[in-house]
Amino acid sequence: MDQPSDRNRHPCPALKHLRVATAELHERLERRMDALARLSEDTSRADLVRRYAALHIPAETALGPTLDPVADLDFESRRRGQHWRDHDAVETPAFPSPESRAEALGMLYVLEGSTLGGRVILRELAGRGVDTGSLAFLDPYGKQAGDRWRGFIAVLDREIGDDAVRLEQAGKGARRAFRHAEAILCGGPV
Ligand code: HEM
Asked: What predicted TM-score, i.e. pTM, was given to this entire model?
């Protein structure tokens, strides 16, 4: 029987495909973002928090119609908008619009995966004595993080399987989402 830990050691075809398709983009984003330095200092932290909101809030609007109906995903509980309730209503660039369910799941892979890195960043900042009060969105699931990730991967596997067309669509979605995230988090004015 397929236990959750097996899913990590032996990633399903979709997760394998997404990792390969986006490894370079994640590495570039991580390098350009310089998150630890920017989140350590008050002014640059406020700017980056605003950029995260400009990434996540429009993503929920763009992905909701396609992902709300997906069984077992519970997209509603994966929304992070509530973390920015006090966020100034600024004109934010639209998140890319998915053309298929597989493409939307590829996009969600990027947003859900960012919670894994987010935990690492948060731990490191707390270790440096940085005030992380405004950064809860980096680790939205806390102790549930592992379960939420495995739950997402189970849906990804069920919806995409090893279907070549869907793998391609998911990969395209993940690359679009990473490029968009890079433009918002590392780019010019938002
Ligand atoms: C400088 C900022 C970032 C750092 C230092 C970072 C670091 C990491 C680390 C250490 C992991 C692996 C965590 C684990 O396996 O427990 C990870 C996973 C991931 N991160 Fe990032 N990350 C950063 C920003 C982002 C952003 C902004 C996004 C997307 C918007 C993102 C998307 C992902 C994805 C999709 C994964 C999952 C990879 C997989 O397991 O397939 N990361 N990140």
From this structure: 0.92
